[in-house]
Amino acid sequence: MESIFNKIDNSKILDYEDSFDIANQCAKLLFSDSSADQSEVRRVVIHVLDNWGKVCKDTYPLWADIIESLGFYPYIEKNKENLSLSSFADHIRGKYYQSEFLGDTYLHKEQKRLSDYILSGKNVIASAPTSFGKSLLIEEVVASNKYKNIVIIQPTLALLDETRLKMLKYNGRYKMILRTSQPPSKDKGNIFLLTAERVMEYEELPHIDFLIIDEFYKLSLRRVDDRANTLNNAFLKIVNKYNCKFYFLGPNIDAISNGFAEKYNAVFYKSDFSLVDCNVINLYSKINWTTSDQQNDKQKIKLLCNLLDSLKDEQTLIYCSTPARARRFAKAYLDHLIESSDLTQNSLPLIEWIDKNISSKWSLSKGLQQKIAIHDGSLQRHIATSIIRYFNEGKLRCIFCTSTIIEGVNTSAKNVVLFDGKKGGKDIDFFDYSNIKGRSGRLMVHYIGKIFNFCVPPEKETIVIDIPFHEQDPNIITDEILVNIPSTDVKNDTFERYKELHSIMPELLEIIKRNGVSIYGQMNIYYALERDINTSMYYNIAWSQAPNWDKLCYVLGLAEKNLFDFESRHGVVSVKQLVRYINQYRKNKSIMDIVDEIYQSKLKRVKQVTDERKIKYFDEAIEQAFHIYRHWFQFTVPKALSVVDSLQRFVCKRHRKHAGSYSYFVQQLENDFIRENLSILVELGVPSSTIRFLESKIPETLDEDGVIQYIKSQQSVLARSLIEYEREKLKQCF
């Protein structure tokens, strides 16, 4: 078949004879029982569509029949001027594949089959390529109006934000719940757009009718994901309590734990059907590999710069193993463009916001001007969301990214560069590689994507996703999952462990289960509180409102090594340093103070300060400070305080002492020290600096829903003093 692909892709024109011959070969393979033959026909047709301008018009009807036989109805609709269905029967079939609930949207053959399973009320576990269109079926479930209360669990806030924007059109029928503080509507349906952690924290869920878990492979413990415990428990919390229908979706999975589908009367639907093909270009042989990582990187950077120059305006993701490497190589390509005088003047509203609120010296600002961006877990949420939006709108050319972008953020990338063969410090496996590769090409945007391998890709392997709460392998299942399994479902191999866990005092056990973090760590904290409750330490335990230095050091000292540690040493190395940063931030409410402290500290460590070092250290300081903000201030510290708070309340009650209440400070920290009724705006992607500016202009008496309505009605007045980027972000609230 390679000769056919070469002819299609490299010929200037496909005359009648060539086009007819290729169509004839495809027609023969269509009747084959071989899935490999079917896959090859799909690939040929995708390449033909990508080169449609070369195809002899007299053969259009032939190709229309083949494309219709393959069930490529979205492409028939997209190209309806040249791919008209000729017979009445063809039109009837075409209408069958039109979504019943999404207007003029057409489903491809296997998408329709999967849709029928879901809408008929079956539980579905779907494994299909990134370009299959699995996420579209989430919208179809919502549009069908079959279910009143729907929970959608997605692993990243960026993905949840993308889903929220798609669901805005259903605001008339559903209330969007993004935070645990938002009560559900009684008058209409509710869509809970939450991470697994927030599902566990949401105390009063209404009756849930439908559960969606996106990227369900994150249930696996064998794949070592530190959030797997919470996702397993979120499933148990919802399905065991409400017996609701569910839809799992994920890519490139061959099998799941034996018996799970049968137990939950579910269909495991595996498909390799794709409307996008991917050309694989191996470039690793062009690198003269040495034992020096520095020398290898120099060669790779040179090769990358030449490649990106040749791709010109084709949108490209460059996968790097760590945030530091993504920033470093983005800067290297920017320097290359400056040296070669190949510069543009890209004007984006985000650039103005960065220059005003962070610094024009930040290399991201300079990169955006040249259509270059970065994307990793340390970026402020609104910046990361804007970068993806600009990229999808064609306003950015390349993004240097980490695994954050391959785990469920949809982009319009035509090309992906596998620059590094690691994820963090570990080698990527075939599953990781398949997900990275799957980000090339986009359904209804690019027919063909490309992956450029700068490293030897992992060998193909069968991917089986374990579902720990069902499988209950005693060597793998954690206490945190085991303790939440109903006793009737616990297997013999783990029953003794289960009994031991349930020997903990019932009230304490319920608190521990609700917290959803290390049972061992929580018990250590409980014993420490019991030890200190009748000593002078009581005053460091039972505090409310805003803690002072000693109180915060004490509580986070309990949490260290039990709920978190500083092993990664990324930005924070001790409890005292962490508390100092927290105090600094709550006083000044500016992350730039922490950036400056880190930057000055780096400068003091070197004897000779060059301009190059200044730029490097400033970028590193921003990345570290943003990581401190996202990882510590927004997640780790609030969670640790909430856990210790629940345990100290229990211990104080046992000892008949007045308990503390950390909830106010936790809320303040999570909400970026923004007024409570305005905190929903952070969730909707409005920068904190903008919200603080608007604080005096929005009534304090309004609830969260009222705030959004007020902004909607007063938008023109509120926007007068805002810059363009801030006005854009405000518009996206509704």
Automatic annotation (TrEMBL):
It comes from the Bacteria. Gene3D superfamilies: P-loop containing nucleotide triphosphate hydrolases (3.40.50.300). GO terms for molecular function: ATP binding; helicase activity; hydrolase activity; nucleic acid binding. Keywords: ATP-binding, Helicase, Hydrolase, Nucleotide-binding. Residues 115-311 form the Helicase ATP-binding domain. This is Superfamily II helicase. InterPro entries: DEAD/DEAH_box_helicase_dom, Helicase_ATP-bd, Helicase_C-like, P-loop_NTPase, RNA-DNA_Helicase. The keyword Nucleotide-binding applies. The keyword ATP-binding applies. Residues 303-489 form the Helicase C-terminal domain.
